[in-house]
Amino acid sequence: MNYKRFKELVRGKEKRTVDFKLESYVFKIKNLKLKGELAKDICAMANNGNVASYIIFGVSDSGLSFKSVNNEKLTDDNIQTFCKKAISPIPKVKLNRECWKNADSKHGEKIFVIIQVGPHARRAYRLNQDFISYKKSLCFRRNEVWIRRGSTSDLATPE
């Protein structure tokens, strides 16, 4: 992704096709909740249809704060393997790690991780496994279909 496109994505707030995460420890520490949240978010983005959607790590929910992503386990290989196990059918995802030399001061010297999801033909992407931990109030079930509604991910209804 080029820097101009990155700035366009972060200039607006979170929306149906863009989700911000300031930090990510997924794959770095064993945590079912982190994996469940990531599976839910990728599933919801995959259900956006024939548009590319983005999960951008290193950007606060407001889009005003930026932090370098320090997670060497957050790689394209790990995302591909994770999606094969966690989501069905397997969505098209691509992870890029970006650090622009000629960036504005607020983005300069920072590493951002960008997961592009899709575009996909219209079909229902669903979770392929359970992510359940009652101690952590986490319950994402196999075969649940998640969608984006504005800036949030919601469980799809049968209608």
TrEMBL record:
Name of one Pfam family that matches: SLFN_AlbA_2
Stored Gene3D superfamilies: Schlafen, AAA domain
Domain Schlafen AlbA-2 residues, every copy: 14-155
InterPro entries: Schlafen_AlbA_2_dom, Schlafen_AlbA_2_dom_sf
The protein's name in its UniProt record: Schlafen AlbA-2 domain-containing protein
Record organism: marine sediment metagenome
